[in-house]
Structure formats: C-alpha cells, structure tokens
Amino acid sequence: xxxxxxxxxxxxxxxxxxFLIFDNRSEVVRATKVQPPxxxxxxxxxxxxxxxxxxxxxxxxPVMNFFAASMGRRCNYCHVNNQGQWDxxxxxxxxxxxxxxxxxxxxxxxxxxxxxKLDPVSCYxxxxxxxxxxxxxxxxxxxxxxxxxxxxxRPTPGGPTPGAxxxxxxxxxxxxxxxxxxxxxYAAALGGQTAIDKLKSRTVKGAITQANGNSFQFELSQAAxxxxxxxxxxxxxxIERGFNGQVGWEKTARGVxxxxxxxxxxxxTANGLFSLLKLKEQYSRPPRVRKDKLGDRDVYIVDGTTTxxxxxxxxxxxxxxxxxxxxxxxxxxxGIIPDQIDLEDYREAExxxxxFTARAAxxxxxxxxxxxxxxxxxxxxxVDDSKFNMPPAPKPAAP
Length: 399
Hints:
alpha+beta; outer membrane lipoprotein receptor (LolB), chain A; two-stranded antiparallel ribbon; 30% strand; globular
C-alpha cells in the first residue's frame, strides 16, 4: 500500500509541476547528439504480464489509472489485496482475466481504426465510468437545440421571403495571429526575452494539496540548462528526484534507482528550467491556431504534435498573452491518456512573471485533481552543483 501511495504522490506531483517549470530539452538533445537509453518494458520488470507486453514501464501507472477511471473502480476490482498487501501478479480474481480479454478486444479494434485513419477507441469509449458498457441510449432523449432562425418563415424559392428585412452581409472573420506571434506575445507578457535569457537558476518552495485533502511540502532547485533537484515531503517519507545533466535518478523509501529512457525525458520535461519558455521547439511541425472561449475569456488555442509524439494544446489569453491552460495526451496501446493543468495567479518575481497557482486534472480516481501553490521563489541564486548528483544506495542494515 505504501508503494502505491508513494507512486500516486510522485505521479500527481510530476503532473502538477510540469507546467510551471522551464526546460530547453530540444537544445540539450541536439547538443549531446546522444540517444537516450531504451526504456525497459513492463514485462521485463513485472511478473505475469500477458497482454501489455512491450509497453514502456513508465506507462504502467497511467494505464492502470486509465482502466480505473474508465470502469469507475479502484485497483482492488481486478487485483488481489490481502490485509493491505497487494499481490498484483495473482490471477485469483476473474475480473482480471476478463480485463485481459477486453484489452485484446480494444487492440484488435484499433487495428481497424488505424487502417481507416480514425481516432483509436479505448475502454472509456464504451464503459464511461461503469463496469458494464453503455450500449443503449437512456430514455427520454434530451431535446436537440433549435436550429438557427427557428420559427422564421421558409424562404420562397427563387426570391426572398415576403416582408423580410434585407439581410446584412456577414462580417469578415478577423485574421488569426500566427503561432509565432502568439509565442512572442507570451514571452513579452512574462517579462521579455532579455529577462528570460538572463535566467540561470531558480529555487522554489510550496505546497501541493490533493483532492482527498492531503497536503505535501516541496522544494525545487534548478540550474541551466536542465539540471534539477526535487524534494517532496510526505507522511510516509520523502521523494527525491534529480538530474545532473547526464544521469537521472529517484530516491524513495524503497531505495535509490537510476531513471532512463522515456521516463527520464518525462522527468526532465517536468522539472527543467525552461519547459514553458521555448514552446515552439516542442512541436514537431508548425501548430494550428484557432480562437475559442475558456470560461468567459477569449483565448487562442495552439494545437499540434510534439517532438515526443504527444498532442499538446496551449490556451493563451487573447488579451494578456499569458498561458492559461495546457493539455497533453499520451498515446498507449490501450488508448489516449489526457492530462490538464490550469495556470493562475501570475506574479512578478525579479522581472519575470510566474503562475503561483496551478490546478491539475488527471485520470487518477482517488485524486483526480490537485492544486500546487508557490510560497517562495528566487531567481539566479547559487545552487550547489552536487545536489543534482545521484546519491549512493543506502548501506544494508547490520544483522
């Protein structure tokens, strides 16, 4: 149970902090020209994996959360828990066997959707938060919205409706700004490109409050271009993560481990110094732009595919230019997994603006939302470089 809680806390924190830190990952990859190590798969590190073989290990918890959200259930619906001890490899529950068959069904269907160039289906496509698929419409059906000009007389063929007022010509649609113009306005709203270029380090303190009321303190130290050290304090102990420019690592109550592959890229994106600054470089091709509403605000939405093959939508306030929301999706073998963060309370700190509040929403049934709040932020302060290094493994206790 402790392992599950620590993973939940770590996952929630990574999602929250993702949109508040700045990283220049693309330049780091270009500078090193070294491909990251191949990540291990779930069947290489787990036991009794029969259907999800080949899936990256870092996707396991998000995929399990996706199953739970789709079914409206928790882990114990399929997995065995004996007096607080999880036996994830056990096949004692028939629900687990049924789940495997359903996963095979989803993957078979998506072979057809891929061939037809359609969006993939997932567990949620049919289940919608229930254990039984929802295949029959609920009655009574809701009335559809009335069509435009409902109640007006039908136009006479070959001419206008008798007695009707002349119809005004439609107003021209204002031209949309380009993605480059939106990114430039955002940089200016943060304090300007010159101030951003002077940013060499940042230290942050704050708190994360989960939907269940749990609150955790965190500290984050960052140095250009992408070094970081993160400390989260929980009732079960501390969670530490770091990257010294070459080696990524995580330390929990279960020990110290090196982080590689896609999981390391995720850590660097979540905790680097420039992840929300050079947004253009994160897209694999020029993103699309459209105008919409977010609540009562007019926003420009920048939408496209990232260099790590995720869909990313950025919602910029049309007036201030500040980023209000960021949504990303991760493609997995069982469907597309979304997450979302809303950024609020921008404050100026030493010439740059940062969002001091962020509200995260993710597919985690026990804690679907969490709120991160900065209580202290300092820029360009010296950071001990040794803090980013992977600590040695704890010595075994003496017998």
